[in-house]
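hey so i finally got around to running the thing on that chain from the lab meeting. sorry it took forever, my laptop kept dying and i had to restart like 3 times. anyway pasting the input first so we r on the same page abt which one it is
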Amino acid sequence: MIWGVIYVVLLAVITVIVLRIGERETRFAILTLAIGSALTLLSLLVSGSRFDIFSLLVMSVDLVVLAVFLGHALVSRRYWTLCLPAFQLITCFIHVVKLAAPEIAPRVYSAGQGFWAYPTMLVILMAAIWAKRDAAAQAGGAEQGCERTYR
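ok and heres what got predicted. didnt touch it at all, straight out
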């Protein structure tokens, strides 16, 4: 239970940060992750599952998020977007593993599902920070507080 609260708080904080400092691509990615997380929570409530059994509804949400991340990566000019469908594909494979081996403990299944959202959030946050610094450097760096010194 506590890990779910930590995840929601961390997602909310990173979403606010990325929406404030990010560019269009990072905003799109973090909103996709936030909406996907909300839909996953909703699908868990609807199905009555607590990761104790395979849930087709939860897998469907993850497959839609995978499709969105993949489409985003295919049209993007940025390389960081390639990480997002990779992490999400691992999440989808964990559903397949649970379907093939239902004896997997619910805590292991839950941990496998939730873990890959953290690197996804980190990649999006780092991309937003990098984009902000890059934009500041392009705009003239020194007057925006982004000085570069070379020795």
